[in-house]
Amino acid sequence: MSNRFQSLPWRLRGLRSATILLFAYLYLPIAVLFVYSFNGGAMATIWEGFSVRWYGEVLSSANFRAAATNSLVIALAAAGIATVLATMAALGFRGRKLGGAGLMMPFLSFPLVIPEIVTAVATLIFFISIGVPLGLVGLIAAHTVFCIPFAFLTVKARLDSMDETIERAASDLYATPLKGFYYVTLPLLWPAVMSGFLLAFIVSLDDFIISLFLAGPSSTTLPIYMFGMIRLGVTPAVNAISVVILVLSLAVVGVAALINRFNRI
Amino acid sequence: MSRSAYNPANRLRRYVQTLPAVLVIALLMGLPMVMMGFVSIVERAPDGGVHWGEFTLRAYSNFLFEESLMGGVELNTDYVTIYIRSFVLSGLTVVGTLLIAFPAALFIALQPQERRNFYIFLISIPFWVNLLVRNYAWILLLRTNGLIDQALIGSGIISEPLDLLYTDIAVAIGLIYSFLPLMVMPLYAALEKFDFSLVEAAFDLGANRIKTLFYVIIPGVRPGIVAGSILVFIPGLGAYVTPALLGGSKSMMIGNLIENQFGAARDWPFGAALSFVLLIVVALAASARILFGGKEKHL
């Protein structure tokens, strides 16, 4: 494979520089943001020396902490519920084709294809009409919905590639279905369940539009808090908030990637 | 497990397992969509909310006409302009991401397996960074006397700030940046499976690079191009964050107009109608994939 198309590259010159440009475009803005979050000055884009003072200010702000707590609570609850529901569904669809599966399965990825703003509008109208107060509970419910596809697709992909013979062996050796599930299926499936959960967790953590519509005054999430700060002005504090959010998501992605790497069978 | 799938108790268990997830989406997403359609055809209440019993198509006629102060009906093109701008900007985003992503996806597809995975991993990372954060980074770059101005003025290329922020150009840059990974992935998936001996054959038969690209490679990966275009076009059309952060008052897109109906304007039926139209456009775009996408399926 390493000498795939050895005769081609000289004919396709220019591709390497195009790729370098793509990576520069993707990473330069993030790198710039990262660097300027350590700017000691009072202006967001005028460098005045290294300092972590803005991180100190941001992390000690009560509003920031409240928003961060809300975000984590919502993400934990929504991703948790979504992962349980999605894993159950993925297991249910396994094996002999279930009547109605052709209709139900695409339905589970439905939230992925609807523009977020439409979901936000529809959910707001729904909640107000049936009297669900704007706040944490509503946010968790709404987040659970769009978290389901991420967990479902991850777990289902793993189930599809899993070797059924091991489970069959367990039942041949007189394991009850429950024992077989607990001692054989679940350990094999666990990494996928975990990475599904983590993906759902990030998606919930990062959600902005749906949360903006559904959050009450006391249930501000991190992205909403950040958006409010940007509206007030582009300041070094916003740089620091951005980097905190960025690091949080990337840390979760990193853990998911590690789980996948160490559990590939 | 699968052998016991034939007995009815087992079937029942499987339904009980799958139903909760399906019901959650049906109740918390399907039902609200239906309700949204309903709200779009009833009379608005002045304080936000609606009068449920009074049906009207005002929200839809509002899109083109408004009542003038004299009580007559006048043509109002403001909203159509916003829709057209959204389509143009999303179209530009598709073209922009395609032009940037295609050469890179081709390059990556020609690399040895391990390096390919690494590149793709690198491209997917920014996608997991919060959309707000990614767009905010461009404020630092684009704003007047921001980092691009500083760099260009410092190197003597320009003498005056470019004033890029809060323009349609800034929105286009932000949209392309936001959705670029969505274009790279399906393009790469198609190019990776492409049989490059066809390219060698084309060269051997005397085709030049341009001809090879347009007559051999592009037709071969068309499903990937269609999939990528739709994956980029749909979120581009519904974009809220990018125009809100990088656009000015004159670069409003559909998403901002909708949000406005639930904030300052307090016109729920109109907001619901705008969302409903957006939903239909998206459904049409998604079915375009079935029409033009060829046989192959991609994520």
UniProtKB/TrEMBL annotation, chain B:
Q: What residue ranges are annotated as transmembrane?
A: 21-42, 82-110, 117-137, 169-191, 212-234, 270-292
Family matches, as InterPro entries: MetI-like (IPR000515), MetI-like_sf (IPR035906)
Task: Provide the Gene Ontology terms for cellular component.
Answer: plasma membrane
Is-annotated flag, keyword Transport? yes
Q: What is this protein called?
A: ABC transporter permease
One protein family per Pfam: BPD_transp_1
**Residues in domain ABC transmembrane type-1?**
83-289
- What PANTHER family does its record include? INNER MEMBRANE ABC TRANSPORTER PERMEASE PROTEIN YDCU-RELATED, INNER MEMBRANE ABC TRANSPORTER PERMEASE PROTEIN YDCU-RELATED-RELATED
